[in-house]
Amino acid sequence: MAIDEIVTDANLSTVLDASRDTRVQALRLVDQIAAAGPIESASPEAQLETSKQQKLLITNLAQLRGLHRSAYFGARQTKSQTSEARQEVDRLHLQLQNLYYEQRHLQGEIAACESYDHTYQKLPLIPLEEFLALKPDHIDDDENALMIARIEHERSEREALEQKRMELLKRKQKLIADNKKRKDDLANLDKELEKFIDAAKPIQKLFDKNV
Asked: pTM for this one?
């Protein structure tokens, strides 16, 4: 496959054209120098033509360098844009994969809920007779309403017990804090007493001498 069929970018095509022109100009200069012979013995017309061809070659090389520089920066910019686009595609692909995983997870959860073996009837509720004795207004309820009422009763009872437990826990914590304060007070009293005893020792020694 020819390179013109591979390279389709306009900027790169311009570089290729300039490269071909520069190559042709360089070969033409080589042929000119070969035909004219050594520069010292060449005719003035040959020297002038050689100089002209050299100037054209330098011009073509300068143009080729400029086009190459532009193509290089353009390629680098395109590479950067391609990298950013690839990162965005990767991010979207990862996001899509996460959505698939989440969808499968939710489908599994839904299936598990639909096939769940409810154990509410195994809850440690008070006996039915005892409940009806406490709540006689539910005697005529159907099975579903009666079970809901019993569960609600159990919930309220446990909440009341939990509230009592928290109150007792607060009392316990208060008692612990009071006991600690008393211990601290006693410790401080012991320290003060020791200081008093230490301060009274000189007086005691004085009494002992007088006796």
From this structure: 0.34
